[in-house]
Backbone:
C-alpha cells in the first residue's frame, strides 16, 4: 500500500501541473492576454514568496512560541492563524500593490490584471507539482533520505480518501483566489479605489489564515485534508463573481490622462494584446 501511495503522489503532482497549464489555457481562450503578463505574475509571486519565507524564518520563532505559551489553545489558534494570514498577505498582496504603484501599466486593462493573477497561481501550482513528482520519483527509486516522504504520505493517505486528488483540487481553489485578490489590488490601484485594495488584502489574509491555522492545530496529520479544502472552498466560490465583476468594470471609465493613458492608446493596446 505504501508503494501505491507514492504512485498516487506522482499522479497528484502531475495533476497540479495540469491544473497550472489548464488555467493558462482557459485564461488565454477567454481573455486573450499577451503571454508575458503570465510571467509578470509569476515574477511578482516569486519575489513575494522569497521575501515571505525569509521573514517567516526570522520572525515566526519570536512570535508563535511566546503566543502559544502565553494564551490558551483556542486563542493561540485564532491569533496565530491571523498572524500567519497577515504575514502572507503583506508580502503576496503587498508586492503586487508595490509593483502596480511603480509600473502603472500592469493595471492598464483587465486582460493584464487577470493574466497576472493567473500567472502567479499557475506558477505556484507548477512548482508544487514538479516538487511532488520529484519527491515521488525519488521515493519510488528508494533514494536515501526519502523515508520521511513515505512516512508523511502514509499519514495523509490514512486519513484522507482519494488524497491524490487533493493537490489538483487545492491548486484550483488557490488559482481562483490568486486571480480575484490580485485583480482587486490592481483594479483598486488603477481606479484609485482603496476599498478594493482592502478587500484583496482581507480575502487573502483570511484564506492563508485558515491554511495556517490547519498547520498550527496539527489538523493536517490528524483529520481528512478534505475538511481543510472545504473550509477554503468559499473563498474560491466568491472569487468567481469577483473576477467577473473586475473584468466587466475594469474599463468602464478612462483612468486619469495624466498617467499617460488615452482612449486611443488603450484601444491600440487591447488590439495588440489580442493578436
Residues:
Amino acid at each position: 500500500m505504501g508503494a501505491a501511495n507514492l504512485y498516487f503522489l506522482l499522479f497528484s503532482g502531475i495533476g497540479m501541473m495540469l491544473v497550472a497549464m489548464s488555467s493558462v489555457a482557459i485564461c488565454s481562450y477567454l481573455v486573450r492576454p499577451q503571454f508575458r503578463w503570465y510571467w509578470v505574475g509569476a515574477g511578482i509571486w516569486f519575489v513575494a514568496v522569497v521575501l515571505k519565507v525569509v521573514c517567516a524564518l526570522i520572525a515566526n520563532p519570536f512570535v508563535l512560541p511566546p503566543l502559544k505559551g502565553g494564551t490558551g489553545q483556542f486563542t493561540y489558534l485564532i491569533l496565530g492563524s491571523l498572524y500567519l494570514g497577515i504575514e502572507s498577505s503583506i508580502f503576496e498582496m503587498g508586492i503586487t500593490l508595490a509593483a502596480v504603484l511603480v509600473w502603472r501599466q500592469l493595471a492598464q486593462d483587465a486582460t493584464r490584471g487577470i493574466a497576472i493573477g493567473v500567472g502567479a497561481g499557475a506558477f505556484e501550482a507548477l512548482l508544487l507539482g514538479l516538487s511532488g513528482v520529484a519527491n515521488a520519483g525519488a521515493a519510488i527509486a528508494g533514494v536515501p533520505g526519502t523515508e520521511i516522504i513515505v512516512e508523511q504520505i502514509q499519514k495523509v493517505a490514512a486519513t484522507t480518501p482519494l488524497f491524490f486528488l487533493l493537490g489538483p483540487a487545492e491548486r484550483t481553489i488557490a488559482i481562483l483566489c490568486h486571480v480575484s485578490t490580485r485583480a482587486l489590488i490592481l483594479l483598486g490601484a488603477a481606479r484609485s479605489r482603496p476599498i478594493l485594495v482592502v478587500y484583496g488584502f482581507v480575502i487573502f489574509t483570511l484564506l492563508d489564515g485558515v491554511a495556517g491555522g490547519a498547520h498550527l492545530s496539527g489538523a493536517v496529520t490528524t483529520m481528512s485534508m478534505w475538511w481543510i479544502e472545504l473550509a477554503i472552498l468559499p473563498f474560491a466560490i466568491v472569487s468567481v463573481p469577483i473576477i467577473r465583476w473586475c473584468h466587466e468594470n475594469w474599463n468602464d471609465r478612462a483612468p486619469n490622462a495624466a498617467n499617460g493613458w488615452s482612449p486611443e492608446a488603450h484601444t491600440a493596446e487591447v488590439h495588440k494584446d489580442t493578436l
User: Anything to note?
Assistant: The radius of gyration is 20 Å.
